[in-house]
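User: What would this chain look like folded?
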Amino acid sequence: MQKTLLVGVFLTHASGAFAGVYVDTSLFAYSEAVTIKGAIDGWSGDFSGGQAAITHNWVETGVTYQQWKLGILKRYDYELEFSPDTADFVYRTENKLALEMGKTYHLDLKARHTYSEGVRLSHEFKTVKDLDLTLGLSYLRGLELTEGVLQGTATALSASDYDFEFGVDYFYSKDSLLDREVQAPSGDGYSVDLHLVWQPTTDFISSLTVKDLIGRIYWENAPRTTATASSNVKEYDANGYVIYKPALSGFESNEDFTQTLPRKSTLLARYRVFSNIRMVGRIYHTKAVTLKQLGTEYMLSESTQLQFLYMLDAKAITLGLKSGNLSFAVISDSKELNEAHTFGLSFSYLYKF
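Assistant: Here's the prediction, encoded as structure tokens.
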């Protein structure tokens, strides 16, 4: 109801003369230890090691009027940071593979997750010569939450048995770790984003995009667990592999929680080396990872470009097309989607009246 009312007010003030409608979508997933499909399916498939897994997804659609945009927004963000030992231990236990007898695995996991929807208002400013600035402000309604840490150790007693002890402190909508039955909380918040474009010469152009420059969601009565878990109680399956049932000591509560949304920054630079070819560099930075890309942009015309980028960290290829008010790009490190550790799609379109 709030979103419908805001759109209605915007259109009324535009007096029927708003410039157009738009859609802006970006979906990106990156998983180091296992494939994206393997991460979804409980850490199955081949194991590559690593320390991070992320997915950032943004779907926005709305209307424009002069330098203003007003849109309905949906977001899904998830970041995991973990030690190499954590990745190895989780992979082996999830797939019931042999542990390295006598080894102590040092467990360290940080999780940040938000699923939200809302309304975004943005405005483009002509600041100084060669520099354009767009500021966006989003109202967000929080739908899902996970935020917290796990730290401890696990010691392999044999190829199929281990002792462990770890501490956890986390807020959540669904308890995926200890299966506590809870009522999911709700939250309200905001996010500020910016987009800077600097073009000092006709041959060079750069841009900086920062999402969640400042971002908060205020959750009411969010479930929280602060506890220490140990392997004092054990069971074994038919093959003799341990099934742990953690013995907990600590607190389960419900509290108000202010979640800080981590920044996501993209720095892009293009330099024209020939009349129709630009060299392109791109850096994508989050709290969990920094991903770098290099490539070229072939200009079919001043308004139409083909883009080819190579992601150095993930060995992934981006193919993109921009033509007028339409842009599309796909990124992957594998021809087979089920084998991809990196995959993304982006699409944007502006229809002017």
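Residues 116 and 143 are 5 Å apart (CA to CA). If you want, I can go into more detail on any region.
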